[in-house]
């Protein structure tokens, strides 16, 4: 029905093509944002994990230090969260970004 | 009491000094991790905000696009979250890191 209306209008085909072009650019802009957003999350998770793993080794090397168990737990939580975050973002990458790209 | 026990031991003073030195290194390692962790959060928040602001401008320039309102809301939420995150990390920096450093 919309097709017919457009077809009857003056410049209807041109208007439809113009809209399709704009839609395309809009989708491309959104995909660029999505890709950037996912890569920021991945990079952040990777860096947090690397930092936590380094700190965990350093903390474990020492003995009988105050709050050592608490800090080790916090570092392990950082590592666990980063693993979850990376997995989630891989899913987003394959299910959302790649599905739309 | 612990002071007296150490004082009476052979090498008690040396042991105490040794422990103090190890404690110092442990604190320094933890502070280095804390500083790195805070700076990662700050950098991530800054990048997410910058990306969202860029995408928001691009999305706003176009008209009558599908899900435009939803994407604008998501981008604004990203910006709001980043502002909150930066403020929280500034607090952590001044109250935790600088207080211990």
Automatic annotation (TrEMBL), chains A, B:
Pfam families per the UniProt record, alphabetical: GMIP-like_FCH
Q: For the F-BAR domain, which residue ranges apply?
A: 1-101
InterPro entries in the cross-refs:
AH/BAR_dom_sf, F_BAR_dom, FCH_dom, GMIP/FCHO2-like_FCH
Keyword tags: Coiled coil
Quick one: signal sequence residues? none
The question of whether Cell cycle is a record keyword is answered with no
The name this protein carries in UniProt is GEM interacting protein
Protein species of origin? Nothobranchius korthausae
The gene behind this protein is GMIP
């Amino acid at each position: 029905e919309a097709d017919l209306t457009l077809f009857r209008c003056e410049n209807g085909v041109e208007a439809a093509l113009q809209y399709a072009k704009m839609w395309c650019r809009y989708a491309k802009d959104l995909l660029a944002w999505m890709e950037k957003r996912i890569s920021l999350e991945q990079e952040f998770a990777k860096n947090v994990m690397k930092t936590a793993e380094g700190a965990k080794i350093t903390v474990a090397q020492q003995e009988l230090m105050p709050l050592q168990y608490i800090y080790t737990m916090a570092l392990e939580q950082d590592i666990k969260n980063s693993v979850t975050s990376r997995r989630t973002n891989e899913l987003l990458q394959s299910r959302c970004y790649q599905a739309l790209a």
